[in-house]
Design brief:
Elements: E1 3-8, E2 12-13, H1 14-26, E3 30-35, E4 41-46, E5 50-56, E6 59-60, E7 71-74, H2 78-85, H3 88-99, E8 104-107, H4 112-116, E9 124-125, H5 132-137, E10 141-142, E11 147-150, E12 153-156, H6 162-173
Parallel strand pairs: 1-3, 1-7, 2-4, 3-6, 7-8, 8-12, 9-10
Antiparallel strand pairs: 4-5, 11-12
Helix pairs in contact: 1-6
Length: about 170
């Protein structure tokens, strides 16, 4: 059974974790929730402004072993994505997945992390529309599509695109 890790902090877009997680589990994948938070309790958000549910992470980022995961998913949410893009432990995990040529699936505001890790440069990506200028300034080619695959990098725009996002992750792992 293949294992997919989710990496997040707090104030993440709940649907981009919860729905993607459920759909991947329904397809037979095992999932693990990794957090950069100081506490294993993490806060979801709905439409980026309303508090959602809390979830319990399985492991802290500092203890994560990338070799145990077949893919990595980065949910969005403005505050979550902004925190992840500045977190060195998160960068280490993201770069290790990239360096191992494993699928890296990034949705909504989470492509900010691709800028800070240097991954965005030269890639064709999609993201939440407000990230277009940031991604282009980082040397990426921005496209407005529900899902964009560039090698092992999978990007998506927002919760409306979750079905296409999950299908792309599943295809990458097949």
């Amino acid at each position: 059974m293949k294992t997919i890790a989710f990496l997040l902090h707090n104030n993440f877009e709940q649907a981009e974790y919860e729905e993607v997680n459920k759909k991947l589990k329904d397809k037979g994948y095992k999932t693990v929730l990794i957090t950069t938070n100081e506490d294993k309790e993490v806060q979801g958000m709905q439409q980026d402004v309303n508090k959602g549910d809390t979830f319990t992470a399985d492991i802290f980022a500092k203890d994560a072993k990338v070799a145990a995961y077949d893919a990595l998913v980065l949910p969005g949410g403005t505050v979550n994505a902004d925190t992840i893009r500045g977190n060195k432990e998160a960068h280490s995990i993201i770069n290790a997945i990239k360096d191992a040529n494993k699928p890296l699936a990034v949705i909504c505001h989470a492509p900010w992390a691709l800028i800070n890790t240097g991954i965005a440069k030269g890639k064709t990506l999609t993201a939440y529309h407000s990230l277009q200028t940031d991604l282009e300034n980082a040397g990426a080619n921005f496209v407005d599509k529900s899902v964009q695959v560039d090698g092992n990098l999978i990007t998506s725009r927002n919760p409306d695109d979750i079905n296409d996002f999950v299908a792309a992750i599943d295809k990458a792992l097949s």
